[in-house]
# Entry
Amino acid sequence: MSLISVGTMAFDAIETPFGKTDRIVGGSATYVAYAASNFVKPVQQISIIGNDFDQSILDDLTRRGVQLDGVERVPNQPSFFWSGRYHMDMNTRDTLVTDLNVLANFNPQVPASYQGAEFLMLGNLMPKLQKQVIDQLTQRPKLIVMDTMNFWMDIAMDDLLVNLRMIDVLLVNDSEARQLTNEFSLVKAARKILDMGPRFLIIKKGEHGALLFHENHVFYAPALPLEDVFDPTGAGDTFAGGFMGHIAKTRDISFDNMKTAIIVGSAMASFCVEKFGPARLQELSKAEIEERVQDFVDLVQFDIDLV
Amino acid sequence: MSLISVGTMAFDAIETPFGKTDRIVGGSATYVAYAASNFVKPVQQISIIGNDFDQSILDDLTRRGVQLDGVERVPNQPSFFWSGRYHMDMNTRDTLVTDLNVLANFNPQVPASYQGAEFLMLGNLMPKLQKQVIDQLTQRPKLIVMDTMNFWMDIAMDDLLVNLRMIDVLLVNDSEARQLTNEFSLVKAARKILDMGPRFLIIKKGEHGALLFHENHVFYAPALPLEDVFDPTGAGDTFAGGFMGHIAKTRDISFDNMKTAIIVGSAMASFCVEKFGPARLQELSKAEIEERVQDFVDLVQFDIDLV
# Structure
């Protein structure tokens, strides 16, 4: 039940209304690995890092069953660096710095040892690189999940549309769903996106939860109302990691199991925002995860007996 | 199992990105009555109308079990009139015209025939008028639910705070909860509001659903993702009417039954936005309501079996 995860491993510097960090570890594949490795081993990582990436993080991930054979290490360049400032609502942010560094020459290669993986998580990356990974696989995974962002819709829409024909599940947020389809109604946007290729669509709405669309079914997973959202960085990737981890663990790609996977992803994301960067994910226990999932059950369950 | 409902009966002129109406019937108590009368009879209305209000609407409400003894009819003045324009997101709107007309002299009186009602719905009105109704009741209702708005927080906060000590359930939207408490986090805002008096708090989040807070419990009711939100006018009042109608019908004021009542309210609100004004509510069948409630069950139910 192996899972290949492709994405960035990076440094972030983050400002929120509640605090500020200098360079801490980040990157989509880092968050996916921390979340998914609670549910499935191995997580087979494909990424690129520079000479400055923390060995202690690599060791920690290895201990958690994350394989790093597909992580290219560039000796004489720094890792990808992103810096941003969140607004009060935590749903919007300004990018302050984007230093591509090693990411400018990322040429993802699937190690022979990863071939045959059942599940593929394509983190947010240039669409051509995401496709390059799919093209290298000798056997099509049972489920391909892809994340993307508005930036690629602006500059690489044709490539993105090609990918949409190759994947099973697309992960976007509400504004990205609207941009991709020119539809304001998320229901209409979802219908158009499902016509573009993916059989499943997850629309993330931050503090307002997430929607799963499939054929003419829809599922609404709430977000847990939190006292404080300390730092939303990585929450979307952590959601993806929890979702994918549950799917890979159960090997069940039915709509019903995806609902459960979304709840698991939402639970993982709710931890992520409690501290800066992946700090909260690094200290999580299995018992805490189960308790948080139960919080989601309590949050939405109700009895109907109208007659 | 009678329910007193206090609020406006009015005319609205509405512009949305999807269309425009001239003067159609509206007002908080009108929407509450249309929604609640599906579940409970009588609905005992307290309001004020001018010489221009449609007799056909009054007849229709009467047929539905709405008592109008508490509705004052002013012979030589027009009814309250509001006109507004919604933005694309349908969560924000600009008020174009507010003509108080008869509402300027509203002096709500509880008819003797309404005394002993078990449930009281205080629609959005000047806090002093809401209190005046409570003060006239010879027997305290089993449950008092109050709606309000940011306008009263701006100009009558002291009166509003007095009311909060007298009621059981407060209904506000997310921005009003924030304004009332100076807290951005809805969880923190909820805790402060529960300290101000009400034992239950419902925070409406429009297309993002609604939250119910009680002690340290929280329930998240989603909104049904809709293809089109045609006109959100009255959706909050319709929600209140469905909520209150279910509570009054079941006479059960437990937290668990309030969850169900919120789902019923959400279902009613999802109908309201499908047409201009109360048009969709006027044509609803019992079967449609039950089907819509079932849609909410399908929307949120999931199985958890993590082990």
Remarks:
- Chain A has one domain: 3-300.
- Chain A touches chain B through 42 residues (CB under 8 Å).
